Amino acid sequence: MPSRLNPYLSFDGNAKPALEFYKDVFGGTLNLSTFGEFGQSDDAVADKIMHGMLETPGGFTLMGADVPPGMEHHPGNTFAVSLSGDDDGELRGYWEKLSTGGSVSVPLEKQMWGDVFGMCVDRFGIAWMVNIAQSVG
Description:
The structure is a single chain. This protein has 137 residues and is an alpha/beta fold. It has two domains: 59 residues; 52 residues, Signal recognition particle alu RNA binding heterodimer, srp9/1, CATH 3.30.720. Helix content is 18%, strand content 35%. The protein is built from two helices and eight strands. The longest helix has 12 residues. It is elongated and about 55 Å long. The protein starts with 7 loop residues before the first strand and ends in a 5-residue tail after the last strand. The model has no long low-confidence stretch (mean pLDDT 90). It holds the Pfam family Glyoxalase. This is Glyoxalase/fosfomycin resistance/dioxygenase domain-containing protein.
């Protein structure tokens, strides 16, 4: 298996609906494992997600989990998940789904470097950047 780099998102108890939402956006196969499946019998966390992984037909991998018991959840604005490519229809479709119910900080429109670009925060508080490369010529 080759090495890979992908986002791993932390959630404060809502990892399952968040990862299911991303599956609706991108398609693919979602595998979820709860704390209970790995022996954590505390009712407060037994059904929370210890590890989730979404693998899409397009080659995306997105992982996430609920913050484990005893750890604090500190959401921040120090990262964003970036989607880029030249398939205008596909990327606009992702944008529409991700931005619905969230907030748009940069509208998806042509930028000074020539590409179509936008930034939003989805309804789960995750920041996304979408860049649609424009063909030259």
